[in-house]
Amino acid sequence: MIRNEVRLIGRLTAEPELKYTTNNNTAVCNTVLAVNNSYNNDADYFHLVFWESKATNLCKYKTKGDLIAVEGYLKTRSYIDSKNIVRNIVEIIVTEVDFLGFTKKGIDKEEPMPQLDPDHKSQEEYQMIHDALCNEEDLPF
Q: d(Cα 83, Cα 44) in Å, to the nearest integer?
């Protein structure tokens, strides 16, 4: 069986921006994912397209540098740029997304996180752990 499947884990290279289609007002978010290359310190960059609730949730809860896992399929398209040159692009249409790691976006700083039980760490403790594990110098952008 021939399949067109892609699975990636990486970090967002920019703030996700929510847009809406003009014909039926459908939510869409185009962004780029940086994926570290396991053979050297370089990163590969992939264009992602999120639709509907996946787009709104990504823009609501994720920010530049956040770690996500995506599944989807490759789609090619062409467009004409401002200099009337035909450009081809390969994008990943995201069908599944998992939010990995800790994010600062979407958290109301004035309202404390609810504690589920006494053994759970406070938001400050999670932030300290996150800061210790996530060194921004390791990000490929």
A: 27
- Report how far residue 117's alpha carbon sits from residue 51's, in angstroms, rounded to the nearest whole number: 36
Token digits of residue 141:
């952008």
Exposed, middle or buried, 99 (CB in 10 Å: 0-12/13-18/19+)? middle
pLDDT 10s digits, 45-101: 999 999 999 999 999 999 999 999 999 999 999 999 999 999 999 999 999 999 998
d(CA 87, CA 72): 22
CA separation for the pair 28, 39 (Å, rounded): 33
Q: What is the distance between the alpha carbons of residues 94 and 67, in angstroms, rounded to a whole number?
A: 15
93 C-beta neighbours (distance < 10 Å), count: 15
Residue among 74, 94, 99 at smallest CA distance from 29: 94
Domains and CATH numbers, the chain: 6-138 (2.40.50.140)
Nearest to 12 by CA among 33, 37, 35, 43: 33
